[in-house]
Design brief:
It contains three helices and eight strands, in the order E-E-E-H-H-H-E-E-E-E-E. By secondary structure, the chain is α+β, with helices and mostly antiparallel strands. The chain has one domain.
Amino acid sequence: MDEQLNPHNALRSIHEGMEVYDAEGRKVGAVGYVQFGREDMSQRDLDATVTPNFNDPVNRPYVPPLLELEPEDDASIPQELQDTLVNSGYIRINGGLFKNDCFATPDQIAQVHEGHVHLSVEGEQLIRL
């Protein structure tokens, strides 16, 4: 499937393990984690994060997780970038043995094509740990 994405629904088409390629077609790594941002959440989702009704199995709300950085990530990402990631959401890309992990925001995702994520930027432009 070839899917053009807009920033508000880009993350919904991506899952862990998908290979990620930059704008030049170079493999950046594989998706290690998908984090929905506050901008991707509907008002119902936001309300559900405050008072979810987990006792009702039929109407149990889907609550996308909010940003949870690892303790070692917290110190290496400036607060302004953390705020951007919280609001927009991101994919964390596992770089492999010899590359640091990095983050791509939804506006850096060009498309999902045949199970791969294609970015609109070069790998060097991503937020790195």
